[in-house]
Design brief:
The complex is a heterodimer of chains A (about 525) and B (about 325). With about 525 residues, chain A is of the alpha/beta class. Chain A contains 18 helices and 24 strands. A two-stranded antiparallel sheet of chain B has the order 1-2. The longest helix of chain B is centred in the last third of the chain and has 32 residues. Classes of the chains: A alpha/beta (about 525), B mainly alpha (about 325).
Chain lengths: ~525, ~325
């Protein structure tokens, strides 16, 4: 008998988005069951239903042979289901043990029994090989350890079934291996793990069974040993896709961006960029590698003029732009695709046309004698929608109604509608489906082929390796390694430097620094 | 100048400080609870003011403790109202807070006029009662410090002693009980307690109710001990000073108490000054607590920034 079954689950959100349509899922006891699918395939919705965050409109859940219905997460927790979200639910200033026991604290009278809590968390972490010190505040821990705290939280509430929502998205390759050790130890002790993912090699490595979802439906359930990465990818998208872009040979003799001795201090007073030197040539993509929070984002923001610097110089085509405003930098040929498209890349409540014209309001063809030329704006937007194949009803639709991939295309269309000299790109395909990813990769590479200098930061090592000519590894605000991209450069090699386990000598780096 | 020093060092002045601090301390504790639960309670002022009037009117007809409790109840109800608008109807909590303040400013005058038969300034023709003082003269039996202690502490309101106990009780609640952990977790990062199955909205609602109740208790003390009777706008910005005291006290009950004492001291200062220097315009003197609030908040902010800069340099 299956441990947990979802039968014919249907979920339509108010507003008419069909997230799940007759979804079936069968989880056996003691297995690692991966649920894969593109973004928007309905994986997260299904998991939210299993965990009681969302209520299905149709279908039923069967746990241990009995029909169950979870009105809220608490009920799922009480039935032995635990979930670790992609965005951690941890209170940063609370200690590890406080976070683990919060909501089910050991008590003596009305007092919170801290000693007992610490001992219990310690015992749990030993039992499942999830090593983490119970005492320090969670906010001070690296992401990999925070994730362990999340898993401990679920286990502390006696979760027999653990749902991990894209757990590897935030981890370096070595941390992924540690997570897999913990997952195997969990399964060996009788727990069941549901693993949501889109990185197929990892899925094949860790899971016993795989359920594939596409457009709100289950496409099929397969044994991991019976499938390959290619056949899984084909099932996910319904057609064969090759995520690969070819870079043209370009003339990379001309220096476009030169950063010297850049230092940046963040709002909390920590120096997050500690003396970075960086050069980007025309027709070249330089990838900034690193676990998130090691200074890559701040470096890009400093170059874009979005963040004050404490020392260093930034030059664009030989001209210093260090003190310049964002507008002046942009007028000199700088374009930027920011990390968070909703908060910084777009005005979600404004229309597609308005978003596309927002950076060109100084051009006489859109603004005449201080008034917007709505017709010109609409025509230009229509052209860009066509050229960047943005799926939208028309230029006057609100950006907020678009899918993640199409929103990102609006940002890309705005930034690349004219060929930039220097293009800054941060996490261009986060939360974007495979089709749009392919398109965005192609567009960025086209800009490079046409002679733009591109600085790319991404949490996805495959993306960096697919697009970059050279790679710089960031660790604690410094460049600790530099590589020229070759086919034999692996994510594991980069991972060693990303985690600070190794660092190149200045001589080693020289070759790739140019 | 020497007269001033003599006045300030006297036991009488300390007794005044304790008296002026009490309503402010209660409002500050109310502000602290709301702040830690993630809500800036800008309505403390209005809650206090309505607490004042409710206590005064009820005291005409009922024993003093019933009057105090009704002041507490009025504040708690306003907290519940605020929670209803902010958390159920999803209104902006700052705007709801100001709505309550405006309601309180106008509503108390209206209610006062109804209760007194037309007087829109004070409740002078109502026979309202006072909170009884606590007699601690037995303390003077203690050798050496006894007489001083007795002079300072005797004659303080029952509510003052309750407030002192509440500082400890709130500290214990926040840092030693599971519910305190919930409240602080809800205030800092609501997604975490939410995922742990803690009823976040309930925690927040209770926090505002308690916050309002404390402000109401402060109001009762103000109108039934510091002054006996109601005067329009008699809270005089104490609810806003309390918000400053929460920040200045580093969002901790003990810190908040020290901050409230500081502001209370300047309040007391403003009371004794006119008797010493009658040439000083009283308006100027009454500005002192507010000027001190602004100066204290600026220096707090500057110091916090400097501390950050120091950490950044290392």
């Amino acid at each position: 008998m299956a441990l947990l079954e979802a039968i014919g689950i249907g979920k339509t959100y108010p507003g008419g988005v069909v997230a799940n349509d007759g979804v079936n899922l069968t989880i056996e006891r003691g297995e690692v069951h991966a649920v894969v699918g593109e973004n928007g395939a309905g994986k997260s919705t299904l998991m939210k239903i299993l965990f009681g965050i969302e209520q299905p409109n149709a279908g039923r859940l069967v746990l241990d042979g009995k029909d169950v219905r979870f009105a809220r997460p608490r009920e799922a927790i009480d039935s032995g289901i635990g979930m670790v979200f992609q965005h951690f639910s941890l209170v940063p200033s609370f200690s590890v043990y406080e976070n683990v026991v919060m909501g089910s604290e050991p008590r003596s009278g009305i007092r919170f029994d801290r000693k007992k809590a610490i001992a219990e968390v310690q015992a749990l972490s030993d039992k499942f090989k999830l090593h983490v010190d119970p005492l320090p505040p969670v906010g001070a821990l690296p992401v990999g350890q925070q994730q362990r705290v999340e898993i401990l939280k679920a286990l502390y509430r006696d979760a027999r079934i653990l749902i991990l929502d894209e757990p590897t998205a935030v981890l370096a390759p070595q941390e992924v291996q540690e997570l897999f050790v913990a997952i195997r130890s969990l399964v060996a002790q009788g727990h069941t793990v549901i693993f949501i993912a889109h990185k197929l090699p990892e899925v094949l490595e860790i899971s016993d069974t795989i359920t594939v979802m596409r457009q709100g439906r289950t496409v099929g359930q397969v044994r991991s040993k019976d499938v390959t990465e290619d056949s899984l990818a084909a099932m996910m998208v319904g057609r064969e896709v090759v995520l690969r872009v070819d870079r043209k040979p370009t003339d990379q003799s001309q220096r476009v961006a030169e950063v010297r001795g850049l230092r940046v201090v963040n709002a909390r007073g920590t120096e997050v960029v500690q003396g970075i030197d960086l050069t980007v040539h025309a027709g070249e993509t330089v990838g900034l590698v690193g676990v998130e929070g090691n200074g890559q984002a701040e470096t890009l923001e400093a170059i874009a003029g979005l963040r004050a610097i404490t020392a260093g110089t930034i030059a664009l085509s030989g001209e210093p732009i260090t003190g310049m405003s964002v507008l002046d930098r942009r007028s000199r040929g700088l374009a930027s695709i920011p990390e968070d498209r909703i908060a910084r890349g777009l005005a979600p409540g404004a229309t597609v046309a308005e978003n596309l014209v927002a950076t060109r309001l100084d051009e006489p063809r859109f603004v005449r004698s201080g008034l917007l030329d709505l017709k010109a704006i609409r025509l230009s937007a229509e052209k860009l929608i066509e050229r960047f194949s943005i799926r939208v009803g028309g230029p006057n639709y609100e950006v907020a109604t678009l899918s993640g991939g199409n929103m990102q295309k609006v940002v890309v269309a705005r930034e690349l509608s004219e060929q930039p000299k220097l293009l800054l790109v941060n996490q261009p395909t986060r939360g974007v489906d495979l089709g749009a990813t392919q398109f965005i990769w192609r567009t960025i590479t086209d800009a490079r082929d046409e002679g733009a200098a591109v600085l790319l930061s991404s949490a996805d090592l495959h993306e960096l390796l697919a697009l970059s000519d050279r790679l710089m590894v960031f660790y604690h605000g410094e460049i600790v390694a530099a590589f020229t991209n070759t086919p034999d450069l692996t994510p594991e090699t980069l991972g060693t430097y990303m985690l600070g386990l190794a660092r190149q000598t200045p001589e080693d780096m020289k070759g790739a620094l140019k | 100048m020497t007269e001033l020093l003599i006045t300030i060092i006297s036991t009488g002045f300390f007794a005044t400080v304790i008296r002026t601090t009490t309503p402010l301390l209660l409002a500050t504790l109310g502000g602290l609870i709301a702040d830690l639960s993630g809500a800036l309670n800008v309505a403390l002022e209005g809650m206090m003011l309505i607490g004042c009037l409710t206590a005064v009117i009820v005291s005409v007809y009922a024993p003093w403790y019933v009057a105090v409790l009704s002041g507490v109840g009025a504040g708690a109800l306003l907290g519940l109202l605020m929670a209803f608008f902010a958390y159920r109807l999803k209104a902006d909590i700052i705007l709801v807070g100001f709505a309550i303040n405006i309601l309180a400013a106008g509503g108390t005058v209206f209610a006062l006029a109804l209760a007194t038969g037309g007087d829109k300034g004070t409740s002078i023709n109502l026979q309202s009662q006072a909170i009884p003082p606590v007699d601690l003269t037995f303390l003077s039996g203690i050798p050496i410090i006894g007489p001083t202690l007795s002079a300072m502490l005797t004659g303080q309101s029952v509510v003052t002693w309750i407030a002192a106990f509440l500082v400890f009780a709130i500290w214990y609640f926040l840092y030693r009980t599971p519910w305190g952990l919930w409240l602080r977790g809800v205030g800092e990062y609501p997604a975490a307690p939410e995922a742990a199955g803690i009823p976040v909205t309930k925690v927040r609602t209770w926090s505002l109710v308690v916050s309002g109740a404390l402000a109401g208790l402060g109001g009762a003390q103000l109108a039934m001990f510091n002054y006996v009777g109601f005067t329009r706008d008699m809270t005089g910005g104490r609810g806003f000073i309390a918000l400053g005291a929460v920040l200045l006290g580093a969002r901790h009950p003990v810190g908040a108490t020290i901050a409230a004492l500081l502001f209370g001291a300047f309040d007391a200062f403003a009371i004794v000054l006119p008797g010493l220097y009658n040439w000083m315009p009283s308006e100027l003197i009454r500005m002192i607590p507010f000027i001190v609030t602004i100066v204290a908040l600026i220096s707090f902010s500057v110091r916090a920034q400097r501390a950050l800069a120091l950490r950044g340099v290392q």
